[in-house]
Design brief:
- With 201 residues, the chain is mainly alpha-helical.
- The protein folds into two domains: 2-56, Arc Repressor Mutant, subunit A; 63-199.
- 78% of the residues lie in helices and 2% in strands.
- The protein has a two-stranded antiparallel sheet with strand order 1-2.
- Helix 9 (143-162) runs antiparallel to helix 11 (170-186).
- The chain is elongated and about 60 Å long.
- The model is unreliable at 193-197 (pLDDT under 50).
Length: 201
């Protein structure tokens, strides 16, 4: 029973924290949204700060693990041309996040709490690093430029996810993501963008 109440509070709190930020969402509002008594929040989480931390931990855990991203982009999961593998890996990362999750991550990144910033940013940074190293190796792009290219793509899509409602339907969202990845690939050396580089064993 307690675990169900915990999950209910985490879901409701994540929604409010994502929309209103840590300081904008009160425990009273969270209690009302979750249909629980406010003291229950303090009994189960001790502090509002701990509640935000636990919400953030759940969101991070649900996002695509960088090891899975690497498995796809390296061709370990399935051999294919590099552009195809990039598109598959980036799509999997993108759709592992909900708009609410992305907004909560952004709230944490912009907070004054270094622990929250590190938690929110760590998987994104690891994913960028995997993409950067893959671009450097497969597209023969200098390390610094590969890092910039990887960061540009991931954060552009991260902003898409935050602004999910602006894109309308899921179909439009998928089209926007595919177009962004395609344009990004065309900015890489031509032999990579055209799919002449094979990855895998």
């Amino acid at each position: 029973m307690a675990s169900k109440i915990v999950d209910k509070i985490l879901e409701g709190a994540t929604d409010l924290f994502a929309r209103q930020g840590y300081f904008g969402a009160s425990t009273r509002e969270i209690a009302l949204k979750c249909d629980v008594a406010e003291p229950s929040i303090y009994r189960l989480f001790l502090t509002k700060e701990r509640l935000f931390h636990d919400c953030l931990a759940v969101v991070v855990e649900r996002s695509l693990d960088p090891a899975q991203f690497l498995s796809v982009i390296s061709g370990e999961a399935q051999e294919s041309e590099f552009p195809t593998l990039v598109a598959q890996a980036v799509r999997r990362w993108y759709f592992s996040l909900s708009a609410r999750s992305a907004r909560l991550l952004m709230q944490a990144i912009l907070s004054d709490n270094n622990e929250w910033t590190e938690m929110a940013y760590s998987r994104i940074e690891q994913t960028i690093d995997v993409l950067s190293r893959s671009v450097e190796k497969q597209a023969h792009v200098p390390k610094a430029k590969a890092a910039i290219a990887a960061r540009t793509l991931i954060f552009a899509l991260f902003q898409f996810k935050i602004a999910r409602s602006v894109l309308g339907s899921v179909g439009k969202e998928r089209d926007a993501v595919d177009m962004t990845i395609d344009q990004w690939l065309h900015g890489l050396p031509q032999h990579v963008a055209s799919g002449n580089t094979r990855t895998g064993t």
